[in-house]
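Hi there, hope your week has been kind to you so far. Thanks so much in advance, here it is:
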Amino acid sequence: MAAVTGQSSLIRLRVNGGAAVEHCLQILETSSIPLTHLDLEGKDLRAWFTIADVPDWGDVRKRLDNVLGDQIEFGEEGAVTIVGHGIGSNPGVINKARASAVGAGVPLNAVSVSPLRVTLWCDRQHVDNLTRALHKAFVE
């Protein structure tokens, strides 16, 4: 059994460079940013969080801009997550989720998995369509 949920108001940060990653993480920590997801591979950091959880986002963004300059990229994305026992460890489920997105006309920005979830990242305007498509494929 699976469940599907969507989030349409996410901020994505992308940072490259060892010192830049450290500075970014320090700012996120001191600003108490509640992360939705974080990927760190080598010197490449991607982090997502819900803008609704950051009432002083304007100030935090200025701090990130001032400290990191052109080493940080900001984006606005959405995410749809399928959760269930073992769902993210099954390549067939991952392929079915990606095919459902293609069938719904939703271009994907990224896919991330863990044993209990599959998350598909997309532009905000596609979250509702993707949520419906994945619900139809995995829940109904």
